[in-house]
Every structure is written in C-alpha cells, then in structure tokens.
Here is the input.
Amino acid sequence: MRDHVEPLRQPRVYLETYGCQMNIADSQTVTAVLRRAGYVSTDRAEDADVILLNTCAIREHAEERVLGRLSDLARLKNRRPELKLGLLGCMAQHNRAALLEQAPWVDVVAGPDAYRRLPEMLGGFDPAVDVRLDRAETYADISPAHEGGVRAYVTAMRGCDKFCAFCVVPYVRGRERSIPPADLLREIGALAERGAREVVLLGQTVNAYRYEATDFAALLRLVARVDGIERIRFTSPHPADMSDSLIDAMATEPKVQPYLHLPVQSGSGRVLAAMERGYTVDEYLALVERLRAAIPALALSTDIIVGFHGEEERDFEATLALMRAVQYDHAFTFKYSVREHTRAFKLGDTVSEEEKGRRIAAVIALQESISLERNRASIGRVYPVLVEGPARRGGGMLAGKTPQFKTAVFAAGEGVRPGDTIGVRVDSASAHTLVCSQAQP
Ligand code: 5AD
Ligand code: SF4
Here is the structure.
C-alpha cells in the first residue's frame, strides 16, 4: 500500500563513483534501488539529502582519494547534520573498521552485496553497516538506471574465484555468480529499444560466465540475436578462461568486435607464478597467437603491474620483452600496491617506490611508442565507426570507436547522428587517437 502514498518531498541523492566499469554499473543498480524507494537523483552534492560514494579498493591510492573526499564531505555534514553520508562498494567492504575509525561521521557503510537493503539502512536513525557477502545476490531482477547513449554496460557476472595473490577483488566482491541469460537478454533488448547500439558485457572475469548450460561463448551468440544491438564487447576476460568456443564465437559472430583486453600482469614466468595467475608466459603467448590466427583484425590491450613482491630487474626486462613480442594496442599500467587480506600481503613490498616509478615510466614509454606505430599503420585505411557524439576537442568534430575500440575523431556531413555507423578514413594518428575524415561510400 505504501506505494500509493505521495511523499511530501522526495529525498535527493547524490552518488559519486570511483574505480572500474563494474562500479559504474553498480551505481546504476543503486540508483534504480533508491528510485524504487522514492528517491530522486541530483548532480549537486550541495542539494542532496543523501550523499553516497561508490568506492574502489584495488590500490591504496584509490582509497586515499576517497578518504580525502570524505573529509571534504565532513564539512558539509557539519553545516547540515541531517545530511546522510554513505560509503558503498569495495572499500566499504575492505576497510570498514578503519573507515569507521577515520570517518566516524559516515552514516551508512554498504558492501557490494548490500545495495538492496540501502533504503532501510538510510531510513534508520543509527549508523548502519552491512558488508555481508551474499553468493546468491546478482540483482538480476533490478533494471539498472542506464544513462542512455549508444554504448551500454551490462553486468553479466559478479565476483571472482581466481584469487590472484595481489588482488583484493575476491575478498570484497565475493564468489563468482552469473546472471541468468533470460534476464540479460531482457535488459539488453530494453536498452536497444532506448537507443543503445553497442553493449559491453561486464564481469571481473567475464569469460568465466556460466549459467546452467550457457557458457560465455553461448551467451555472446544469444546477445548477438538481439535486434538493434550492432556491436558486442566484453571486459575483462581472464586468459585462463579463453576457451576455443569463445575464440570461435569472436571469430564467427560479426557483431562481436575484434578487440580484447587480455590482462597479462607480468612477462616474467617467476613473477606470474608468484602472482598465482594460472598461466605461463608461453601459454599466454600461444593464446595470443591462436587469437590472432582466428581474428586477424584483432586489437589487444592489457594490464601490467610493475614492482610486485620479488620482481627483479630481469623480471621487469621480461615484461618489456613480452610487450615488444605481443605489440599491444594499449596497456593499463600499475605500480604494485600491497593490499590487506590478499595472499601477497604478508610477503610485503620489495621494490622501492622510486624504482616502481622508474619501471612504470619505462613501461609507459615503450607502450606509447608501440601504440603510435600501430596507429600510424592504420593511416589510409577505412573503418566503420559507431558515432557517439561530439569529440572532446570540439571544433564541430564527432567521435566514436572503430571495431578495435580506438577513438576516431572526424568531421561528419550533415545528418550524421549518434548511433549511426559511418565509414571513416584515417588521415593521421597519435598514440591514443585516430584523426579521420568521412569516407565516401
Ligand atoms: N596493485 C597494483 N595493481 C593491481 N591490480 C589489481 N590489484 C592490484 C594491486 N594490488 C591491477 C591489475 C588488474 C587491474 C584491474 O588492476 O592489473 O588487472
Ligand atoms: Fe583480481 Fe585476479 Fe580476480 Fe582479476 S582475476 S579480479 S586480478 S583476483
């Protein structure tokens, strides 16, 4: 019956998101849960009755940023004690005790499996903490509040069972669980009706997806049948779960785009073993070869950690050598950050901050030169680009992605709209952008 009572004034919620795509998707679920309970969204913290930070715990730096933001918000709360402050996500799960000590003015602490209960937690008078991990929680019945736009991110699976030695994710997001295909297809169909043309399936180890008989390759083929969806991507896959059937689905299903983010972390066999990644350097390189043989247009990106416990100069050199061998199109690079609860925590840090700085600079410089060379090799070629909207550089230019997920900017003719796919020819290239002109059909 409560649903029929008009609230006097709907409480306003301001939500700030840190970290990965999964968190952005989770924030859309949180928004949906709160809207159902009568809240409205605001994009101004000053106007909000409730301020929520959806946080990341992957590296210490991410946590420090949030702690800094929390002390800013303490001033707002001082002026308006009725304001509710909530901390959501991985850092809430990871660090709850320290958090409540360092930021006692926080009213609500909710881990990634507690979002369904947020309305009750925010409605109470006492501070509320809920960091129970729930291996059954998938939020499958909640349609996230998607922002619109040509690309939509859809969570296909949650959690991670891999337990890499450096990583806190399995502890803060809990065990792997997949969302039923029927729920995913319903959501993706609704997104297509609202104008989405590209869907990105998300999961911490998205290719470990399995729901009853449907594995990830089968899921890709089901999603490819959704009318209106023209492009399918996914992130992040784990190298150990790149099955032949998945490679085959990528190679033969035209909607699945030729781009793969394939985190390697290190090019040293010794370090990979210490990281407990579940593959050797040779296995990884053989996988890259199989992928490129099956999907000749494939672009590859990766994650690299420098300065993991025990990483010596020769291990680091091996990472550079692997990068030269693979020729990634892009790399995300990180300095190792010791995380409490992980298997590597007790091993500690053996590489100084300064040395990590030197190594990461060398990795970035090498990748910039490889990216530039690869992008320059595309000059003169024509690619289909899904138009997203105005380019950041302005000047009436539009931007979109090539199938390989490279940013293309271009001046387009009258009548070209976001959601259209047009042909563009690459005129010039930097390490990060292709400057193009519309190709005549
Ligand atoms: N320190 C540094 N980087 C990390 N990552 C995960 N855990 C850590 C850590 N403790 C990186 C990995 C992963 C990416 C999402 O974040 O490269 O693939
Ligand atoms: Fe972390 Fe490894 Fe799981 Fe990725 S696969 S989320 S790096 S534990």
About this structure: The mean pLDDT is 95.
